[in-house]
Design brief:
This protein has 194 residues and is mainly α. It has 9 helices and 2 strands; from the N terminus they run αααααααβααβ.
Length: 194
């Protein structure tokens, strides 16, 4: 939705390519980043910041997130190939969708291997002033998330476990985390809640 707004509000230069196949490629990249990749990063944050799991379960969830991150980065790297940007010569829709996901992985110590095409792409993304500003905003938000972790585990605030996030937690072995969150009243589901 955010990229749709940006594309309509500031149509020049366009983020989406003109070619229908290239547009589908960009949108598919966005879909995977917005659902699968976001869920992995989110799940890692549940363990790192909010300490939803400890001991062996925390180790298992971190290992799942690390493995899934490598798989997603390999998929992105295959899509990028040797191109400068996901859409070819120009920064575009797929780059805007992938940038925050890859950067969050970098923040977690799960970034792409140095020297790989995806790592070089991440370096190029950092050079864009708008992206660098967004990444700096994430760093501030990350510090605030760590400071607010007690609110989310005590029930002072409730974390939203929406579709792909819930799926990640369950398929990665964290069903106990979900059940504990329901029991303790510190998680919620999207509107309308039942």
């Amino acid at each position: 939705m955010i990229l749709e707004y940006i594309e309509e509000r500031w149509p020049e230069p366009p983020l989406l390519p003109r070619d229908p196949a290239a547009r589908a490629f960009a949108r598919q990249t966005e879909d995977v980043c917005d659902t699968q990749y976001e869920a992995v990063n989110w799940g890692f944050g549940e363990v790192l910041w909010f300490r939803r799991a400890r001991g062996a379960l925390a180790d298992q969830l971190r290992a799942q997130a690390a493995g899934q991150t490598r798989t997603l980065q390999a998929w992105l790297e295959q899509r990028l190939g040797e191109a400068v940007w996901f859409g070819g010569d120009d920064f575009g829709w797929a780059d805007a969708a992938a940038a925050p996901m890859v950067n969050r992985s970098v923040h977690y110590g799960l970034g792409p291997e140095p020297g790989t095409p995806l790592a070089r792409w991440h370096d190029r993304v950092w050079e864009r002033p708008s992206v660098a500003a967004t990444f700096a905003e994430f760093d501030v938000a990350a510090a605030e998330m760590a400071a607010a972790s007690d609110l989310y585990t005590s029930g002072g605030r409730r974390r939203e476990y929406r579709d792909h996030r819930l799926e990640w937690m369950v398929k990665s072995g964290g069903i106990g985390v979900v059940l504990a969150g329901l029991r303790d009243g510190n998680i919620r589901f999207p509107w309308p809640e039942g």
